[in-house]
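Exercise 7b. Backbone tokens:
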């Protein structure tokens, strides 16, 4: 493309010079120079835009290949590669307070035939999630930073001791991830949960460094409520944390994920209440198994909630369908879009937006999809549960839409009502 623009520009300039050099030309010398200067300037702009477009396309293709190598379905890989171009960096604040020494954590151990869930402390769960995010983003080419909530030396922070940066554009990412692992394994759970203080310092630094308005994805991995000097959260701690979250999201182009490493219901309710009462753009996540149960309870059990989907949500994603998974049942057109992320091939047309054709399309493509680890059952299963999908699409075993309710039946004509009753009797 760049060569094409340059060739066309050269031809245009040569034509203009030739025309101006013809005896009796209507273009005088001054007019010629002025037009030539304007044309040259336009050509330079075209070439600059062309180079930028080529660089963006190459970057997108490089990221797309990286996600595909990591086993990401084509539709989902394309979505992530496109979003990554709009993301400046991902930031992870890792809670290493004293309470993270609690023993109700879990993390997955990768095996040749899938995964195995292992019991762990909360800090071990947080540590495993951070390392997994670092490896994932390093391979995808995304700049990410990791900050200990209670660093060894908060007044004079140093990389590799108090925080770690994984930047694929600078140095060897394998060594950077190794440095992060060393820092995390050297850390021990201790101290309070000073979330407001850490976010404030982080916000001030980012406000001075962010020169463009690309998105910042902030993930806070924690097991408890914000505290400062006490072991329990007081009103001032909660207010300070809420204010800092609001300042963070308003002053920076930022999305926030609260990843909870605890089963404590009071903690879960606290963060959900912050989101609802203050209208903050937060996505509250549990661990893999807990989130899989929420997705099922929200009416989206047709999706096998896998480590891949959980990892993507954990790091933050702009596509809102992922946020809705644990909030409400997806509508038919939303289900179709999500299924395209999981099953659509390079030569496939867009998926139908009507229940029956969509169902038939999934039945056709699902056998070709690789199995995934299901966070709910702990088994390797297809990425879509066909029976639950049929229910979510409103399809019955008869291949019809949902049978009308008794209230709806009362407004049907008599003959139609008799026909529906006969179908109901046959189906029992």
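Sequence design result:
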């Amino acid at each position: 493309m760049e060569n094409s623009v340059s060739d066309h520009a050269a031809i245009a300039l040569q034509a203009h010079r030739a025309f101006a050099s013809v005896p009796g030309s209507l273009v005088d010398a001054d007019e010629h120079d002025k037009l030539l200067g304007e044309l040259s300037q336009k050509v330079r702009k075209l070439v600059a835009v062309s180079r930028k477009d080529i660089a963006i396309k190459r970057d997108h293709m490089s990221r797309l290949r990286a996600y595909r190598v990591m086993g990401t379905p084509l539709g989902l890989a394309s979505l992530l590669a496109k979003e990554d171009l709009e993301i400046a960096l991902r930031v992870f604040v890792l809670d290493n307070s004293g309470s993270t020494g609690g023993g109700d954590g879990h993390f997955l151990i990768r095996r040749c035939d899938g995964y195995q869930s292992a019991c762990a402390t909360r800090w071990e769960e947080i540590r495993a999630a951070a390392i997994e995010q670092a490896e994932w983003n390093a391979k995808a080419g995304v700049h990410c930073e990791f900050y200990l909530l209670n660093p060894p030396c908060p007044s004079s922070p140093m990389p590799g001791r108090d925080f770690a940066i994984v930047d694929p554009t600078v140095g060897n990412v394998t060594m950077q991830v190794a440095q992060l692992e060393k820092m995390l394994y050297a850390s021990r759970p201790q101290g309070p949960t000073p979330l407001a203080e850490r976010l404030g310092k982080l916000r001030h630094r980012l406000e001075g460094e962010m020169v463009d308005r690309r998105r910042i994805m902030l993930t806070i991995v924690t097991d408890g409520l914000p505290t400062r000097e006490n072991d329990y959260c007081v009103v001032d701690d909660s207010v300070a944390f809420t204010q800092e979250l609001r300042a963070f999201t308003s002053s920076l182009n930022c999305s926030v994920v609260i990843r909870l490493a605890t089963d404590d219901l009071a903690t879960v309710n606290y963060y959900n209440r912050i989101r609802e009462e203050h209208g903050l753009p937060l996505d509250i996540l549990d661990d893999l198994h807990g989130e899989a149960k929420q997705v099922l309870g929200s009416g989206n059990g047709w999706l096998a909630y896998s480590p891949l989907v959980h990892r993507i949500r954990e790091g933050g994603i702009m596509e809102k369908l992922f946020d809705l998974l644990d909030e409400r049942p997806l509508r038919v057109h939303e289900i179709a879009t999500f299924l395209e992320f999981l099953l659509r091939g390079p030569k496939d047309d867009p998926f139908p937006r009507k229940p029956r054709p969509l169902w038939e399309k999934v039945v056709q493509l699902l056998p070709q999809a690789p199995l995934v680890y299901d966070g709910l059952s702990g088994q390797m299963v297809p990425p879509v549960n066909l029976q639950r999908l049929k229910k979510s699409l409103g399809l019955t075993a008869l291949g019809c839409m949902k049978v009308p309710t008794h209230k709806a039946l009362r407004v049907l004509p008599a003959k139609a009502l008799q026909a529906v009753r006969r179908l109901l009797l046959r189906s029992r």
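Instructor comment: The chain has three domains: 2-66, 74-285, 340-419. Confidence is low (pLDDT under 50) at residues 398-412.
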